[in-house]
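I would love for you to help me understand the pair of lines that follows before we discuss the fold together.
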Amino acid sequence: EGTNNWNALATTTIPGSTKYVMIKCKNVGGPNGIKAQIMGPDGKIVTQTGKSWQCSTYATGGFKPATVENQHSNWKSRAGSGAVIWSSAPSNGVVTAYCKFSLPQSTDYTMK
């Protein structure tokens, strides 16, 4: 569940049986972007947002490699060193993006 505040991090536990993680982000003004880091039970990074993630403007299809946004200098020290990503659709008018990543089988994950 999100924080409804672009400047606040949300943390959640993801069961190890999860096949993929999808993040929905709605931008209500200003620069858009999603930044996340998923860690395994040993605390090591499994993935962080970047071009290996798939994004779309729809939850049910149209996924393409994520577009890396370069307008987020305030986010560099938050949620690891991953990139800030968004849908590859033109950002003017795109207010919601869905970005996902397929997870390997594990015990539990932690997402920040």
In short: Residues 55 and 61 are 9 Å apart (CA to CA). The radius of gyration is 13 Å. The longest strand covers residues 20-26. The beta strands are 12-14, 20-26, 37-39, 45-48, 54-56, 64-65, 67-69, 84-86, 96-102, 109-111.
